[in-house]
Design goal:
Elements: H1 7-16, H2 20-27, H3 35-52, H4 54-71, H5 74-89
């Protein structure tokens, strides 16, 4: 699925438009087997939680960061760290 790398941006746009329906539909995708799919899903979930409130988002991002650290996913870690900074300043 070549569009997976776009999911975080789609989620950010949907959050900016306050379109919760799109966020929920993105998050409902059942099969997230590959690391790229998992990264996209976890990023989308963090964005969804970010729209609900900083505390939930921070907890989820912390858990996500731990997963990426174990996987050695440097790019995903960098993106997660950036999201954590945004949540901290929200």
């Amino acid at each position: 699925m070549a569009f997976l790398w776009l999911l975080p941006q789609i989620a950010r746009t949907a959050a900016g438009l306050e379109d919760v329906d799109i966020l929920r539909r993105i998050d409902r995708v059942d099969e997230w087997a590959s690391p790229l799919r998992r990264h996209a899903q976890l990023t989308v979930r963090a964005i969804v939680l970010e729209t609900k409130g900083g505390h939930e988002a921070a907890a989820t991002l912390t858990a996500v960061r731990e997963i990426f650290a174990r996987l050695g996913a440097k790019l995903a870690l960098a993106e997660t760290d950036e999201l954590m900074k945004q949540v901290a300043f929200a």
